[in-house]
Each structure stands twice: as structure tokens, then as C-alpha cells.
Amino acid sequence: MQQIINFIIRNKNFLLFLLLFGFSLLFTIQSHSYHRSKFINSANFLTGGVYNSINNINNYFDLKTQNQLLTEENKRLRSLLSNSAIALDSVFTDSLMFGKSYNFYTSNVIKNSYSLHNNILTLNKGRNDSIKQDFGVISQKGIIGIVDKTSANYATVISILNTTSRISAQLKKTNHFGTLTWNGTSPEFNQLIDIPKIAPVVKGDTIITSGRSSIFPKGVPIGIVEDFKLDQAENYYEINVRLFNDMTSVEHVYIIENANKEEIKNLLSDN
Amino acid sequence: MNSIFSIHTIRFVALVFVQVLIFNHINFLGYINPYIYILFIALFPVSNNRVILIMLSFLLGITIDMFLDTGGIHAGASVFIAYIRPIVLKSSFGMIYEHQTMKFNAVDFGSKLTYFTLLTVLHHIVLFSLEIFSISKILLILQKTLFSSIFTILLSVVITIIFSRKSK
């Protein structure tokens, strides 16, 4: 017994080092598996508060570009509205909004990150604004990621620039679908894998979300095909997708809630 | 004792804020960021207790991790260099360190640079190995280590020169 205690006292530095290093490894491994990073995230009171107050100042610096983006989006939506087939004088105007399946919330990115291997963003909306895990996040131009952790006023988002991110995506012209991943190299490109060989992929094709995951509605733009090749087994294409979004500069985003998600989930788990 | 304590508290908080709010947004050439918060570990008094240093390094690392959503990679790397620091000190300062009389203000520039370089490279190798976490991407790890190390060493030397008190 004496010897054990002596051993511990003699090697206390090394044992402390091992213990703390073990903790760090544990946190690291947890953060590498999807949705499991429990304690260490930036959606808490301290970090969220700091980022929010700094963002209040930084906001002003790119006000001009953000305004331009918003006007562009308004222009696109207006042209959609005026060119749509539905005549404007007979719109279904029930305020109960029967059958509405997607709710949108607006939010601001208060911490962006794109230079790491697993990038995570922080938004300034949280549980108090009824944001929950697994809501989709998009910007004016395309998808951003999926909500991971929420605190009272802040939420973290697993960016599409995260090597653990998996999002169902498809070709716009046909319905061949695959999985959108990131290989960790360039923030301009994502990789779309598991597109069957039979699909007629051409350089310049548009990639959109497929709506199969019940997180994003179908048709949210992602990017265009930059180049593509067959994978090692020669059965599926690996496509390099140039993103519409400039992920290095995002400010105003929309959070999407799928109101029918529970129903879809229950149906799937019944089978 | 009290003033030393308060200096290190201020240094801890200041380095965390500077790291999180400024140096993480540099993204030179897309991904190169300096990690100057390790100055806290490098400049911690030599004679002080090692246990305290290791604990403080963990705290420092985990604070940075919390801000950057990186799991525990900064904590791991910081704890590692805090543990390995005496060996690095011995190999870069030699005799002065053995006699327990050294002050970081009063050592010559060459050995100080060696000391910063060793600590920074060790820290960055552990940091990026933990971040990328796959042996097949060893080249990417080494590349990131090299570029970020150069940046960090330069900035740490500049900062120590700016903030050092004149030794009379």
C-alpha cells in the first residue's frame, strides 16, 4: 500500500498529464461522432454572449454586401411571384395555414468557421425561439448545414464544411440521389458520392437537396458539377460540387423546421 | 506573489480573447492561423509547480475549444506541451535552467527562439493530428503544422519583444 502511494506521489505529474490528456481525447472523439459532443460547444452563455456582442460591431462592416445579397434574393422571389402560374387574385388566404409543412425562422451567424476539418457555426437563436436539433439551415443562395446543439439563446450548426456532415442531395434534371460530404480540403467544393453510374452527369449540372432526409425541403440549391469520376468500385460517381454559397462569408440565414418530421419518423420506425 | 498571480490571470484572459476574436479570423491562404495562446504556457514561471501548470493548460485549452467548437484538441495539445516543457527548457537553455535562476526577460535571443520553436512545433503536431485524426492524411497534418508554426513563432517573438520590460 505504502509503495502504491509512493508511486502515485512520485509520478503525480505524469498521471495528471495522462488523466487530462485522456479527457481531451475523449472530447475530441466525441466531437468526431455526429451529434455527440456534449459539454464543449460554443452555444453556451459565455461563448455565445461574447460572439454576439462582437458580432453586433462586426455586422456594420459588410452591411453593403449583405444588403446586396438580400436585394438579389428579393428580386428572385418577386420574379417567381409574378411569373407563377397561380393567379394572384385567388390565393388561398386561410390564416390557419392548413397543410403548411415547413416553418422558417431568420437568424444571424455570429461565429463562422471554414479553415478547420470539422467546421461548426454559431447562430443567435436558440431554444427560446423554438429552434431544435436537426433543423436545416440555408442562406439566400444555398444550404449551410444542420442545427446540432441549442442553448437558451444560441445554437451551433454542423456546417456542410464538416467531414462528419452527410446530406441527401440529387441532380436537378433527373432524380438520381446521393450523399453530400466534404473531404476537408477546399471550402469552395463539396463532394457528392453514391450517384449511380447510369445517371447522365454532365459538367455544369445543378445539384439540389433531395428532400429525402426530412430536414431540408426538396429543391434547395447546393451547387454545380465541377468535375466527376467513378469511384474505386466503378459503380458510383464521385462528383466535385462547386457550392453556390460563399461559405467564407455568411451572415443572414434561415432555419427550416419540418412540421411533419415526427410523423415521418414514426412511420419509418413502425416498419 | 500577488502581482505575479494577477499578471498571469490577466495574461490568460487576454490571450484567450485575442486568440478567439482576432487570430482565429486571419485564415491566411485559406487555412493558416497562428495559435499564440501557447505563450501563456511558454512564459509561465519556471520555478512554479508543474501540477498547477498542467491544470492551467488544460483549462486554457478547453476554453479555446469551447469557443471554437473543436472538441478537446486544444486542451490535449496544451496539456502535452505543459507536461513536456521541462525537457524542452533543458534542451534549449541548458545550464541557466539547471540553476533555477532564469528569467525569460534576461535570456539571449537565440535560445529563446529555439525554445519557442520547439514548443510551437510540438503543440501544432499534436493539435493537427487530433484535429484531422487520420493517419492517411499525414501530409496534410505536416503541411498545416509547418505553415501555422512559422506564423505562430513569428508572432510570439514579436509579441514578447513588444511586451517585454526593459532589463536594466
TrEMBL record, chain A:
Presence of keyword GTP-binding: no
GO cellular component annotations of the record: plasma membrane
Rod shape-determining protein MreC beta-barrel core domain location: 109-257
The entry's keywords: Cell shape
Keyword Transmembrane set for record: no
Family the entry assigns: Belongs to the MreC family.
Protein name as catalogued: Cell shape-determining protein MreC
Organism expressing this protein natively: Algibacter marinivivus
TrEMBL record, chain B:
Keywords, in A-Z order: Membrane, Transmembrane, Transmembrane helix
TM annotation in the entry: 12-29, 35-60, 72-93, 113-133, 145-163
Full protein name: Rod shape-determining protein MreD
Source organism per UniProt: Algibacter marinivivus
Lineage of origin: Bacteria, Pseudomonadati, Bacteroidota, Flavobacteriia, Flavobacteriales
